[in-house]
């Protein structure tokens, strides 16, 4: 996957940014940034799963990329679904046999292909302005595959902890929706990516998301959060980021 991803990102900028390639899903930096603190030194393809399987999707002539992406997406999707069900059943045994999370399928989940170019301006965290901005994921669960370079950090207690790359290991993050559904028992972990002065880094992330009209609800009542739909959540996050430069997330939905 890493080799295929490297080939994809080596395409000329015009090709990557063309509306046809991978459904026109190319982004660089932070399109929504309103201050330098929110800039990130990265480029990515934000690919809806349905696009990967669709015949209409243009892979820029990279035929092996299509097959590899399809295989990775399928495996990550299966893993995310299984883990989500196991985690849900641990809190609410009645979830067994139900489809959980409801409203998630290949039209709602997506794959993010990330590349972090070397960033000479920021050796060893000299200027934090170029990290992938600290955030929590707005989904149920994220399955992440990072390469050997490292740079991912997560908030543990009061400080950042580096997630060392282990060959063949995947990282699974609980997202905001699972935190809400679990009444805060599962925590959506804040994370960021440090830049590297000399080495480029690649990662692939699979986001388990429901449809926009799916109500999120809770494993049991009373819940600290009111019921909201995923669409409402996404809209609110986007509005907050645009208005204040920051994602507020779940606290907006406290009862
Ligand atoms: O590249 C990584 O390791 C993390 C990416 C990430 O956090 C994200 O895309 O939400
Ligand atoms: Fe993330």
From TrEMBL:
Has keyword Nucleotide-binding?
Answer: no
Keyword annotations = Iron, Metal-binding, Oxidoreductase
Which family does the UniProt entry place this protein in? Belongs to the iron/ascorbate-dependent oxidoreductase family.
Q: Which PANTHER family match?
A: 2-OXOGLUTARATE (2OG) AND FE(II)-DEPENDENT OXYGENASE SUPERFAMILY PROTEIN-RELATED
Which residue stretches, if any, does this entry annotate as coiled coil? none
The protein's name is Gibberellin 2-beta-dioxygenase 8-like
Looking at the record's lineage, which domain of life comes first? Eukaryota
Give this protein's Gene Ontology molecular function annotations: dioxygenase activity; metal ion binding
Report the residue ranges that make up the Fe2OG dioxygenase domain in this protein.
Answer: 107-210
Q: Is the keyword Ion transport in the record?
A: no
Q: PROSITE patterns recorded for this chain?
A: FE2OG_OXY (PS51471)
Q: Could you tell me which species this protein originates from?
A: Panicum miliaceum (Proso millet)
Pfam families (alphabetical): 2OG-FeII_Oxy
